[in-house]
Design a protein that fits this description.
disordered N terminus
Length: 381
């Protein structure tokens, strides 16, 4: 202490304001604390025994009072928050929607119009139906594999959340008992120790007694703030319980939706696809039978027409002679005409020969005459 520092002595270091505390009935306060926190008789006894060990005047002890359970709840809250934050239920919902979209894209009623052959149309339709079914089944199967993985994870999360709920319940009970012990001890100190110091300072009037009462009152206030912090921690634990159940309920509902999709929707869809393919085969067989029947009738009609034409032609030919009368008549006329022409040619030939013979005789006579004339001329010479 400096020699020049002035020391001021006072009988009232608190400026005339010495804290006073009315002394209530302690048993009534204990009952009120335990009723508020709903502790069992065994827990009340444990709280009382623990409260006897609390030293409000020990600043370190006050600072660390309930810190362990507060840290547990803080770590627990972080774990629960991480579980909620890393969970992507939106992806699961999106994949369920993808399943519905994929199933809707499979249209059994879609069919090409027109005829492209007897069996080609039915075969093409069934083939296309099978191809669309295989494609949809592959896509749905791939999505369902992912959904099954999500379902397993969701079920694990539900079990984990049950453990978190139980842990939170234990932490809640623990912080409640800390709070009960603290309130019990605080009421005990204020009702006994602080009240005794206040009475002593009032009776003695000494500043050190008043300071002691003020110090203990300040310690009680600090401890009360610590209890308030614990009360907030307890409220966090209270709020955490329904939050855990909400997340757990969401996980359960989503898992049930996945389960319903896997065991109800998809088997039903596959059954409908089997029926669709069966109906397509039946339709194909019916169309084939109808086409065969139509073709058979058409062939019978054509064959009957051909048979009619052929029969009539055969009958006509069978009634026809080897040589037609017209042919014989024409042949006979041609033969007579030929004979007539031959006779005419022969007649004309005879006439020409007679004329030639006459001409030859005449020529011969002329030649003889000429030769005679030549002979007579020579004799005259």
């Amino acid at each position: 202490m400096s020699e020049n520092q002035e020391i001021t002595l006072t009988l009232d270091p608190f400026g005339g304001e010495i804290p006073t505390v009315e002394e209530p009935v302690m048993e009534q306060k204990e009952l009120t604390v335990f009723q508020e926190l709903q502790l069992s008789e065994q827990e009340q006894e444990t709280v009382k025994q623990f409260a006897e060990k609390i030293d409000i005047s020990n600043s370190t002890q006050v600072l660390q009072f309930g810190a362990a359970v507060q840290k547990k709840i803080a770590d627990f809250s972080g774990t629960a928050l991480e579980n909620v934050r890393t969970k992507d239920l939106g992806e699961v919902g999106s994949m369920l929607s993808n399943v519905v979209t994929e199933l809707k894209s499979f249209d059994v009623e879609e069919e090409e119009k027109g005829l492209f052959g007897l069996f080609k149309k039915g075969s093409n339709k069934v083939t296309a139906l099978k191809a669309k079914y295989d494609k949809a089944e592959t896509n749905v199967g791939r999505i369902c594999e992912v959904l099954e993985g999500h379902q397993i994870q969701l079920l694990k999360d539900v079990a984990m959340l049950d453990k978190l709920y139980d842990m939170n319940l234990d932490y809640f009970k623990e912080v409640t008992m800390y709070l009960a012990a603290g309130k019990y001890k605080l009421a005990q100190v204020r009702d006994h120790d602080l009240a005794e110091l206040v009475r002593k300072s009032e009776q003695s009037g000494r500043p050190e007694d008043a300071q002691a009462a003020n110090d203990l009152s300040s310690m009680c206030n600090r401890f009360e703030k610590k209890l308030y912090d614990l009360d907030l921690t307890r409220m966090i634990s209270i709020q955490m319980a329904p939050q855990i159940r909400m997340v757990q309920n969401n996980d359960t509902q989503m898992s049930e939706k996945i389960q319903s999709t896997l065991v109800n929707t998809l088997p039903l869809w596959k059954s409908q696809m089997v029926l669709a393919l069966g109906l397509a085969h039946s339709e194909q067989a019916a169309k084939a039978h109808r086409e065969v029947t139509d073709m058979t009738n058409e062939l019978l009609k054509k064959n009957a027409e051909i048979l009619k034409t052929s029969t009539i032609a055969t009958a006509r030919e069978s009634e026809r002679g080897i040589v037609d009368m017209e042919t014989l008549k024409q042949t006979n006329e041609s033969l007579i005409s030929t004979l007539d022409e031959v006779m005419q040619i022969q007649t004309e030939g005879q006439q020409k020969r007679r004329a030639a013979e006459a001409e030859l005789g005449k020529m011969e006579d002329q030649l003889k005459q000429k030769l005679l004339e030549v002979s007579r001329g020579k004799k005259a010479d």
